[in-house]
Design a protein that fits this description.
Radius of gyration: 28 Å
Organism: Deinococcus depolymerans
Protein name: Transposase InsH N-terminal domain-containing protein
Number of helices: 14
Helix content: 40-55%
Oligomer: single chain
Distance between the termini: 66 Å
Number of domains: 3
Structural class: alpha/beta
Largest sheet: 6 strands, mixed
Pfam families: DUF772 (PF05598)
Length: 397
C-alpha cells in the first residue's frame, strides 16, 4: 500500500441533499462534520505508508471511521457495513451515494500502521486541537480516574502457564534451528508440546498435576542447559521466547541439591513466587500483570483517563496514560500533571480519588499552580485498628 495524498473532497451534492431531506436536524455524525470539517488530512499519515505500491484507502477517512466506530461501539465488520449503508456516514466521509466503501480488514491494517509508527496519540491530539480551535476546551477543572484493561490472553493457571511457555519457546526454536532441535529434544516431547497446552487433556487429580508440572520443569531446564552447553546455540537464549522461559522457570521452580549431590527440581510454593508486579502471566504478552482494585481482579494493564468536568462545558478527555496493572495510581499523578502542562492544558482544580493523593503530591501540585482535591486514604496503621490508641483522627493541625 502506498499513499498518494489528495486534497480533501467536498461533500457530494446528491449526498448532502438526501441527508438534509432524511435528517433535517442532523445527528451526532453529521453535526461533527458540519462543526469540525474533515478534522484529518492525508498528509498527517504520510510517514505510515511507502511511496510506491497499490494506492491505499484515504487514511483521513479511516481515521474518522475509527472515531465513529468507537462512538457507536461497532466491530470492524459493522463499521465497514455502515460506510456502505449509512447516509450520515457517507456525508461525513464525503462519499458518493454509490460508493461501496472498503473491506473491513482495512481498519485493522490502518490501526496496525498507527501502532507500529507510534502515531496512535496523533489522532487524539488532532481532535483535541480541533476542540480547542472551536473554543470547546476549557481545562479549568479536570478529574482523573483509572480503570482496568484486559490483556489479549486467556487466564492461565500455573500448570498451563509453564506448559504454554515451554511450547512457545520450542515453536520459536523450530523456526531457526529445526534440524538441531530434532537432535536435541526427545521424541516424546512432540506429543507433549505439539499443541497449545489448554487444548490437551490436563490431569484433574492433584498428584497427577504435580507430576506433570515436575516433568515440564525438568524438560525446560534440559532445554536451557542444552543451549547453554553449546557455544553455537548460546545466542538463542537471548530470543524473547527463551528469555520468557528463563523468567518463568526462575519464578515457578527451584533447584535443590539432595544429600547424594543430585539436583532436584521442585515447583515453588504459591507464597514463594514473586510479587504481582514482576510475575509473568502469559508467554504471549510479556508486559501483562495480574492486579486487583477493590472488587475487580484482572490480568493486563491499567489506563488513566483525565477529562474536563466544568459544568458549563462538554466532557472532553484531555489525557490518556496506560501503565502496568500493578503500578499504584499515586505514582502516575506527577506524570499526568506534567504532560498536561506541557500541552497547555494545566487544570486549575484537579479532582482525584484517594489512590492518587499523597502529601508530596499536594505540595508538588500547589507548586505547579494546581489545586489537587480528593479524599484522604483510610489509615491502615495499627493505631486505627486499636480501640484505645491514638490514630490520625485524634490530631488537628
Amino acid at each position: 500500500m502506498s499513499l498518494h495524498a489528495a486534497p480533501l473532497a467536498e461533500i457530494p451534492t446528491r449526498t448532502a441533499e438526501l441527508v438534509r431531506i432524511i435528517l433535517p436536524k442532523g445527528n451526532t455524525i453529521t453535526q461533527l462534520r458540519d462543526c469540525f470539517g474533515a478534522v484529518y488530512s492525508d498528509d498527517q499519515f504520510r510517514s505510515l505508508y511507502p511511496t510506491r505500491g497499490q494506492p491505499a484507502y484515504a487514511p483521513w477517512r479511516l481515521a474518522l471511521v475509527t472515531i465513529f466506530q468507537f462512538l457507536e461501539h461497532l466491530s470492524d465488520r459493522q463499521a465497514a457495513e455502515h460506510v456502505r449503508t449509512r447516509l450520515d456516514w457517507k456525508y461525513a466521509l464525503a462519499l458518493e451515494l454509490e460508493d461501496l466503501g472498503f473491506h473491513y480488514s482495512v481498519l485493522s491494517e490502518f490501526r496496525a500502521r498507527l501502532v507500529a509508527a507510534d502515531q496512535g496519540e496523533m489522532l487524539f491530539n488532532t481532535f483535541l486541537q480541533a476542540c480547542r480551535d472551536h473554543h470547546l476546551l476549557k481545562p479549568g477543572r479536570q478529574r482523573t480516574d483509572s480503570t482496568h484493561v484486559l490483556a489479549r490472553m486467556r487466564v492461565l493457571n500455573r500448570l498451563e502457564l509453564i506448559g504454554e511457555t515451554l511450547r512457545v519457546a520450542l515453536d520459536d526454536l523450530a523456526t531457526v534451528i529445526p534440524e538441531t532441535l530434532c537432535q536435541v529434544i526427545p521424541a516424546a516431547w512432540w506429543a507433549r508440546y505439539s499443541r497449545r497446552v489448554e487444548e490437551g487433556n490436563l490431569p484433574h487429580s492433584e498428584p497427577s498435576r504435580s507430576e506433570l508440572a515436575q516433568t515440564i520443569g525438568e524438560d525446560g531446564f534440559f532445554l536451557m542447559t542444552s543451549l547453554l552447553n553449546d557455544t553455537a546455540l548460546n545466542p538463542l537464549l537471548d530470543r524473547p521466547a527463551l528469555a520468557m522461559l528463563r523468567q518463568v522457570w526462575l519464578q515457578q521452580f527451584q533447584r535443590e541439591l539432595s544429600g547424594l549431590g543430585v539436583t532436584q527440581i521442585k515447583l515453588r510454593a504459591q507464597e514463594d513466587t514473586p510479587p504481582a508486579e514482576s510475575r509473568r502471566c502469559t508467554p504471549h504478552e510479556a508486559e501483562a500483570r495480574a492486579s486487583i482494585k477493590r472488587h475487580t481482579r484482572w490480568q493486563g494493564y491499567k489506563v488513566h483517563f483525565t477529562e474536563c468536568c466544568d459544568e458549563a462545558g462538554p466532557r472532553l478527555i484531555t489525557h490518556v496514560k496506560t501503565t502496568p496493572a500493578t503500578q499504584p495510581d499515586v505514582q502516575v499523578n506527577d506524570t499526568i500533571q506534567t504532560e498536561l502542562i506541557a500541552r497547555a492544558l494545566r487544570p486549575e482544580t484537579h479532582l482525584v480519588d484517594a489512590g492518587y493523593l499523597s502529601g508530596d503530591g499536594l505540595v508538588e501540585s500547589q507548586a505547579r499552580g494546581i489545586d489537587l482535591v480528593g479524599p484522604l486514604r483510610e489509615s491502615s496503621s495499627w493505631q486505627s485498628r486499636t480501640a484505645d490508641a491514638f490514630d490520625l483522627s485524634a490530631f488537628v493541625i
